[in-house]
């Protein structure tokens, strides 16, 4: 059988994704090295470093979160970006930039979702400041959050959102909108589906510390695995089972979380 030919457009997009992912991981590593500066700005980064509310800390957290999402989510988004680019070029060959706007809408959606994690960190910081025995309560609550994130992996909503991420053709066929504006709106929709698929995994990252490179890489690898192993429901369920057991362990023995996460202040 003849070998399938790889189009130059595929190679160029793959190279772009590889370069942007590498740059994003580099800047993420640089952010970890600049953690002292981020802390001085009040940027929340873990359950023990919740920071404080303010426009500066919010802007810094949002920028940090965007870079992290590019590092973690861009590789698994390549099939959808490639299919969108292929269809867009055939339908609107004289209107370039559509796939860029698709990606922009996608990552802006993830950036907006990061504001919920920012608010949660800040509220936890306020709780720890005034509540009695707050540290233990926060750690046990984190265990419950891990259990809920694990259980979500078994739900129909998780499977429905994952289907859109695993099958780019299904998403493109069902949600196609022509034009640059349509591409941007499609990117937002894809981001919403992706958040619906991965918010439980992001809660795990939230609990472990968003600047923990090891957990970032682990969650990014899990997201990629879930998307490329289509039709295998046991993958997200197995992952969910592992984190449910971990959450149960943390709920009973809160000190476990400080050993496996970035909660260095607790």
Could you please describe the fold and organization of this structure?
With 266 residues, the protein is mostly helical. It has one domain. It has eleven helices and no strands. It has helices spanning 8-33, 35-40, 55-91, 98-130, 134-152, 156-166, 168-175, 179-208, 213-228, 234-252, 255-260. Helix 1 runs antiparallel to helix 3 (55-91) and helix 3 (55-91) packs antiparallel against helix 4. The longest helix is centred in the first third of the chain and has 37 residues, at 55-91. The radius of gyration is 20 Å and the shape is globular. The model has no long low-confidence stretch (mean pLDDT 89).
The overall number of domains is 1
Distance between the termini: 61 Å
* Residues in β-strands, percent: under 5%
The DSSP helix count reads 11
Structural class: mainly alpha
Q: Radius of gyration, Cα only, in angstroms? A: 20 Å
E-strand count? 0
Oligomer: single chain
The SSE order reads HHHHHHHHHHH
């Amino acid at each position: 059988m003849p070998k399938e030919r790889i189009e130059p457009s595929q190679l160029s997009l793959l190279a772009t994704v590889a370069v942007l992912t590498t740059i994003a991981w580099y800047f993420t590593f640089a952010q970890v090295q600049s953690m002292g500066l981020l802390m001085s700005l009040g940027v929340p980064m873990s359950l023990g470093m919740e920071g404080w509310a303010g426009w500066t800390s919010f802007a810094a957290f949002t920028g940090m979160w965007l870079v992290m999402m590019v590092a973690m989510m861009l590789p698994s988004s390549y099939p959808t970006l490639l299919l969108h680019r292929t269809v867009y070029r055939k339908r609107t060959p004289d209107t370039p930039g559509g796939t860029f706007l698709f990606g922009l809408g996608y990552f802006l959606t993830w950036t907006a979702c990061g504001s919920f994690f920012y608010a949660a960190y800040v509220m936890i910081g306020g709780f720890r400041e005034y509540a009695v025995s707050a540290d233990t309560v926060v750690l046990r609550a984190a265990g419950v959050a891990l259990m809920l994130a694990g259980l979500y992996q078994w739900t129909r909503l998780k499977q429905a959102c994952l289907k859109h991420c695993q099958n780019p053709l299904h998403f493109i066929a069902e949600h196609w909108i022509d034009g640059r504006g349509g591409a941007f709106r499609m990117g937002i929709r894809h981001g919403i589906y992706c958040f619906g698929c991965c918010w439980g995994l992001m809660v795990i990252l939230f609990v472990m510390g968003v600047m923990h490179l090891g957990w970032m890489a682990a969650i990014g690898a899990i997201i990629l695995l879930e998307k490329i192993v289509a039709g295998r429901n046991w993958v997200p369920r197995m992952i969910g089972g592992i984190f449910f057991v971990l959450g149960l362990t943390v709920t009973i023995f809160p000190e476990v979380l400080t050993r496996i996460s970035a909660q260095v202040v607790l």
